[in-house]
Amino acid sequence: MNNMKAWLEILGISTKLGLTSFGGPIAHLGYFHNEYVRRRKWLDEQSYADLVALCQFLPGPASSQVGIGIGLLRGGWIGALAAWIGFTLPSVLAMVLFAYLLQGTDMLNAGWVHGLKLVAVAIVAQAVWGMGQKLAPDRSRATVAILAAVIVLLWPTAVSQLVVVLAAAAAGLFLYRNTTAPAVANMQTSVSRKAGAACLLLFAGLLLLLPLLRGIFPSFGIALFDSFYRAGALVFGGGHVVLPLLEREAVPSGWLSGEQFLAGYGAAQAVPGPLFTFAAYIGAVAGGWQGALIATLAIFLPAFLLVAGALPFWALIRSMPRAQGALAGVNAAVVGILLAALYDPIWTSAVRGVLDFAVAAILFIMLVFWKLPPWVIVIAGVLGGTLIY
């Protein structure tokens, strides 16, 4: 009974956060801190900081992984599932509804839909701006970022992004090999090291086996699961960085058009919860509610496996300076990959002339310098697109 009460409590609180957490991953972490640390005291400050550090170290949706980790620490495996469902489901439902709305009418060329594409320009430009200042602040990391952008643009495949990330990790090992590792709290978890190792093996096994299964048993469901699992497994840096990975997987496959892709990405800025639920929109456009379910489960599964797998080993990993150096290199490459996505497909598809540029620039200023919330930017973008088209 106590376990059931704890699971329902986790589900209720995470659902409230899923309905109210606007503003992207950084804002989500602020909401989590206020709810879980300050109000409910489920974690102390140091444990929360170290859980955030772990989830930023891992690929995947950082804010969702923090929520999953808190649920895991509080209520075991079912607690982790309850935390994820509550935080994710409201956004998933909103994105699936938008997908059906867009498909059921001839609105793709409407001015307000083009406005959503301009919102995407401003949002991703803000992400590049902020992440560049934080993750590529010096000459060596800025160089890694620019080289990553150039390589990804000249070699536009999903494989190129993986190669760039691995090369950046190697560069970080060399450039930042003397990085000092900070102290880490000892978080108590119900996941044993054996179970953690099994989760990490399953994570790696699926990453290797799914492409083989896709080749042997060609079907829409396996192809969808493989693409979205790989996207969730390989993206570093949060929700915005998944954009180029998903675009490379979804648009060339014919699951949706470039215009549908950008319209959905713009709409994703207007809903609360994790940006990774953009996968539900793509899945719904490609294959209805079944496609939305497959895409959502696939893109978030790596987050579960990595958090559960790494948590028992985090104190050991965090104490290794070389791991810190590799992460510094990967984070710089992430900035470059996102910069490349800002140019292609976002800029090349959305900015067609001077008026488009003017609207995108105004939205960027509103977001970065006026500090207005993303939902206000979405409304302004929709109005701007309606006025100029």
From TrEMBL:
Pfam families: Chromate_transp
Regions that span the bilayer: 6-32, 77-100, 112-132, 144-175, 195-216, 228-246, 266-286, 293-317, 323-343, 350-370
Organism (species): Paenibacillus zeirhizosphaerae
Xref: NCBIfam families: 2A51
Similarity comment: Belongs to the chromate ion transporter (CHR) (TC 2.A.51) family.
Keywords: Cell membrane, Membrane, Transmembrane, Transmembrane helix
Name of the protein this chain belongs to: Chromate efflux transporter
Membrane topology: Multi-pass membrane protein
Main location, first listed in the record: membrane
Cellular compartments annotated: Cell membrane
Coiled-coil regions listed in the entry: none
Native organism taxonomy: Bacteria, Bacillati, Bacillota, Bacilli, Bacillales
Primary gene name: chrA
Signal peptide: none
InterPro entries xrefs: Chr_Tranpt_l_chain, Chromate_transpt
